[in-house]
Amino acid sequence: MHGVAKVALDEFQRRDEETKRKKKIEVYLNIRDKIFSKTQNGSFDLDGLRYTAELLSKNPDIYSLWNYRKRTLSKLKENHCPHTDYAENDQKKSSFDNLCKRELELTETCLQKNPKSYGAWHHRFWVISRCIDKINIDFKCEVKRCDALLFLDGRNFHCWDYWRLLCNFFDVSTYDRLIYTKSKIDYNFSNYSAWHCRANLLLNDIKAKNYRQINVETYKFESKLVLEGIFTDVRDQSAFFYKIWLLNLIDSRRRDLSITKVDVEDDSLTIYFNDHVNIKSDSIVFRVGNDYRSNFDWKAEDGSRCFKIWTCKSNDALLMRDSDTFEINWLVQNRNLEFHMNRNRIITGSRDFVPVNEIGCTVTEELTANDELRECVRSELGILSQLVEMDPNEKWPLLIYTLALQKVDREVNKDRIISGLEKLKTIDPIRMRYYDYLRNDLGFLN
C-alpha cells in the first residue's frame, strides 16, 4: 500500500511465508479443479456453493467462481423447491429466499475483504435484481450499507455504481437522489464522485424534460452550493470542475434563426432549421405559383416539442416536388420570413432573420430564460472577482471568472476575457494550447 514501509524478513520468516503461500495455492487449485469439473459435468449444486464460498471469502476477485454461483442459483430457482442448507452437518431445511440471504451475507463478507471487488458488487446486485422478490428487499438497509462504505472512501465508484443501480431498480426519484448526493457533498466538498453523480442526475433531468439548458432556479441553487465549496478550499479542484460544468450548460450563443434545408418527398415535407424550434400548424405557408398551402400537421423528428427537424405528411408535396421553384413564408413573432427554393433545393432567403433570443413562440422555456441565466452569472462576477483577488496566481478562480465573463457577454467583456486567458497561459503553461483553443473558439483569434 502507499505510504507503508516494507518490513525486511529474515530467512525463517521468508520460509514460513512461502509455506503459507504454497498451502493457499494448493487449496485454491483443489477447489478450482472441483468447480471446473462440476461445470463440465453440468453439476450445479449446494456442494459447489460451499466450495466456492470458502474460496471467495478469502479472494473475492475470482470471476469464474461468481459465475458458477449464478448458474447454480438460477438452476435452484427454476426448481421452485426447498433446499438443504449448504453448511456442513446442517440438516435444517431452508427456503430459496434464505439461500439468497446467505448469498448477500457472502458478498458482504467479500466486500469487507475488498470494498472495490468488481465481482462481489456485481453479484450482490444480480442476487437482488434476479433472485429475491422486490417486496422482500430493504432498500433503506442497502443504502445504509452504501453509506458505511462511502464513509470510509467517498470516491468508491463501485459503491456509487451499486447505489445508482439500486435507485434505478427501486424507481427512486431524481429529487431524492439529489438529496443523497448533497448529503455526501455537505460531508466532504472534495467528493468528486458525488459532484459527478449530481451532474449526471441534473443532465438526465434536463434531457427528460426536452430542455436544452439548465432551469434558472436550479442553476441558482447549484451555483450557491458549489460556491460554498469553492470558498471552503480555493485550491480544491472538484468544486471548480462542477462550476465549469454549470457554466457550460448555459447557451451563450446569439444566433439568427433560419431554414437551412427542405426535403420534398412524394407525400412528405421535411424542414431543417439551424436551431431548436416549435412549429405551429398555421405558422408556415408554402406558395407554388399563386397556390398557397398551410395548416400542416408538423411533427418533430425526435417526438419532442422543440427540435431542429420537422416533418409533415401532405399530398401537396408532389406539387412542390415537380415545380421549378416554390416559396416558404414563415410567420415568426409577427415577422414574415421568406425563403425561395429552386429545383436544386438551394435556399435564397431574406436576410431579415430573427434572433433566436427574440422568438418567444418558437423556443422552449429554458431558451427564453437565457437572459435570466446570464443575469445570474452577472450577479456572481463580484464574488468570482474577489476569489481572483484573494490569490491572483491561482488558476482555478481566474479560469472560472474568465468563463463567466464569456457567458455574460463575450463582446462587451472581450478585453477582460483575452487578458484572463493570456494570464492563465503564464500561470499554467502546460495547458497553453487549451487556453489558445478557448480564445479561438470564442472568435478572438490571436
Automatic annotation (TrEMBL):
Entry-linked PROSITE patterns: PFTA
Keywords (A to Z) from UniProt: Prenyltransferase, Repeat, Transferase
GO cellular component: Rab-protein geranylgeranyltransferase complex
EC numbers on record: 2.5.1.60
Catalytic activity: geranylgeranyl diphosphate + L-cysteinyl-[protein] = S-geranylgeranyl-L-cysteinyl-[protein] + diphosphate
Matching Pfam families: PPTA (PF01239)
Record carries keyword Chaperone: no
InterPro entries: Prenyl_trans_a
One GO molecular-function entry: Rab geranylgeranyltransferase activity
Signal peptide location: none
Enzyme class: transferase
Any one biological process term the GO annotation gives: prenylation
Similarity comment: family membership: Belongs to the protein prenyltransferase subunit alpha family.
PANTHER family attached to this UniProt entry: GERANYLGERANYL TRANSFERASE TYPE-2 SUBUNIT ALPHA (PTHR11129:SF2), PROTEIN FARNESYLTRANSFERASE ALPHA SUBUNIT/RAB GERANYLGERANYL TRANSFERASE ALPHA SUBUNIT (PTHR11129)
Primary role: Catalyzes the transfer of a geranyl-geranyl moiety from geranyl-geranyl pyrophosphate to cysteines occuring in specific C-terminal amino acid sequences.
Protein name from the UniProt record: Geranylgeranyl transferase type-2 subunit alpha
Source organism of the structure: Romanomermis culicivorax
